[in-house]
Design brief:
Layout: H1 4-22, H2 25-36, H3 40-44, E1 48-59, E2 71-82, E3 87-96, E4 99-110, E5 113-119
Antiparallel strand pairs: 1-2, 2-3, 3-4, 4-5
Protein name: Lipoprotein
Signal peptide: 1-21
Keywords: Signal
Length: 124
């Protein structure tokens, strides 16, 4: 037999969680971003994505001192995602700290299988 007090406590907790989720500023930012990109329905209808990026890492833990200048690492990538089939192809390359030349890797993920091809080829 369920206790009325326990059921009341669970109901109050669920109502509190629902109310706090509605006032969550993070959710408001995500909703605003989705709206700016055409709305949630349009985003859910996407079948694929192509992403490109460039990054810069400050390797604090590898640097000679706790203050700048830090050792740096640079990275660039291109990624293609098939959202319907759950597939991914990502080409990335890095250089810096101990690598004067760009060194790259291509990753493929499809049908529960992952593969990586390490190469020196430039993205382009």
């Amino acid at each position: 037999m369920r206790s009325p007090l326990l059921l009341s406590a669970v109901a109050a907790l669920l109502l509190t969680l629902t109310a706090s989720a509605a006032g969550d500023p993070g959710r408001a930012h995500v909703r605003a971003a989705a709206k700016a990109m055409g709305g949630e329905a349009r985003l859910r209808a996407l079948t694929g994505l192509r992403l490109r990026g460039v990054g810069h890492w400050n390797l604090l833990e590898q640097s000679e001192r706790p203050t700048p200048p830090f050792l740096a690492m640079y990275e660039q990538f291109e990624e293609v995602r098939d959202l319907r089939r759950g597939r991914l192809r990502q080409k990335s390359e890095s250089r810096g700290m101990v690598m004067d030349e760009w060194k790259g890797v291509t990753m493929l993920l499809a049908d529960g299988v992952a593969a990586a091809d390490f190469h020196l080829e430039r993205l382009g």
